[in-house]
Amino acid sequence: MDIAGEESISLDPTAARGSLPKDMRCKHCESARLYRHGFTATGVRRYKCRDCGLTFIGADALPRMRIPIVIVGAAVSMFYEGLSLNAIRRQLNRIYEFRPSDSTVYDWALRFTRTSLDVTRDLAPQVGGAWIAHETEMQIGERTVWVWDVFDEETRYLLASKLSTMRCSGDIQRWMNLAIQRAGRTPEQIMADNMARRLDAIEWAGDSHAEHTPDPSFSVAQSTLATESIRQTLTSRKRVMRGMANMAAAELVVGGWQVHYNCLRPHEALDGATPAAAAGATTTFKNWTDIVRRDAEAGPTPI
User: For residues 95 and 11, is the Cβ–Cβ distance under 8 A?
Assistant: First the structure.
């Protein structure tokens, strides 16, 4: 089972109501003689220097960013930990005295999910031959959809997730082909519960453009025990996706949760390591704030 708290977000208590962030200095003259000076039009805390008389916003905001990256990173992390948009707003207001709208938090989550998918596209996990497949039914608006996930049993790495509206064999094959491409190998055995019969009945056809394609000789075993811990893990994703009505956004969030789970969320069964670390898939970021920083440094779009 996963540890409930994902990454260790730096929520500096000195940034709470009534005090200044630790070691903050004026962006213009480096003076430490500062005081709080209201908010910007977008609700960001503003500070004023007693020496030079100039104002500025949070000291950790990067060029082209109106809002400090630690606030944005914390919001996206809370989103993928399953907090509601309203709960995220309350937390940000309590800790940072920042009051974004629900739509602002949601837009951040989608924007930096895209960034996270870009920076993890080439990860090459080293996984074993025993995989666990699971199917989750959920509602997106008025539509019933199914999300399929396949995990490596040894490292708990989530190799591939796919949201399907038709539950057809073609979608299942594309999902499994994606897992095999990312793993760089075919499985020896796939353990599943309610998917076992359908997986076993499929006549596998590989992707002609892929180096690795499904080997018809791999076995499929029905195992409720193997999938139980996976089912509990995926419960947290249901909280993230509750109330979603847009299919394109839902597909994006399925991918973002995969990044969150693999790369940012410590796993109890792995002694606190992430599945990515257990699978030797090295990342250049440690939390969502690092991902936000990379996006802000690379692009001209302000936050």
Answer: yes
pTM of the model: 0.79
Nearest to 57 by CA among 88, 85, 97, 91: 97
Co-location of 39 and 136 in the same domain: no
Residue percentage of the chain with pLDDT more than 70:
82
Residue 141: inside a domain: yes
Question: Is the domain of 142 the same as that of 47?
Answer: no
Give whole-number Cα distances, 40 to 55, 111, 209, in Å.
Answer: 11, 22, 52
Q: Could you tell me if residue 288 is inside a domain? A: no
When comparing pLDDT for 19 and 46, which is higher? 46
The answer on pLDDT for 282 being more than 70 is yes
pLDDT value at residue 15: 39
Neighbour order of strands in the sheet with 45-49: 34-39, 45-49, 55-57
Element (H, E) at 114: helix 102-119
154 and 234 in one domain? yes
- Pairing state of beta strands 219-222 and 34-39? unpaired
